[in-house]
Amino acid sequence: MKYCRCSSCQVSRVITGCLHPSKCYVKAQELLNSLENKWDPSVMQPEDFEEYQKPREHDNTKCGGFRFQGHHPGHTGRHIADLHAGV
User: What is the DSSP code (8-state) at residue 23?
Assistant: First the structure.
């Protein structure tokens, strides 16, 4: 491989001290090309399209959930779900 004069290789030579960074670029591309689609970071996966789903909020008292009882002045009985939600 001949001495590459592109800006990417010039910057890589300065930063890393490598004389032939283009060899690393070629090897990296070969390795990426050898990956199955499932593991290839350049291939969109079904998980990439999943939307975040906010956890369902429900009343824990209806399903026998735990309730903190106030033992200290000013402490009110709150649902665990309220504590997680920052209520």
Answer: H
Does residue 13 lie within any of the structural domains?
A: yes
33 and 2 part of one domain: yes
3 state SS of 57? coil
Whether residue 82 has pLDDT greater than 90: no
In tens, the pLDDT along 12-36 reads 999 999 989 989 889 999 999 999 9
Same domain? 34 vs 1: yes
Structural domain for 75, as ranges: 56-87
Q: Residue 54 above 60 pLDDT?
A: yes
Spatial separation of the C-alpha atoms in residues 34 and 13, rounded to whole Å: 26
Is it the case that residue 85 has pLDDT exceeding 70? no
Q: Hey, what long-range contacts does 57-62 have (CB within 8 A, 24 or more apart)?
A: 57/81, 57/85
Does residue 43 sit within a domain?
A: no
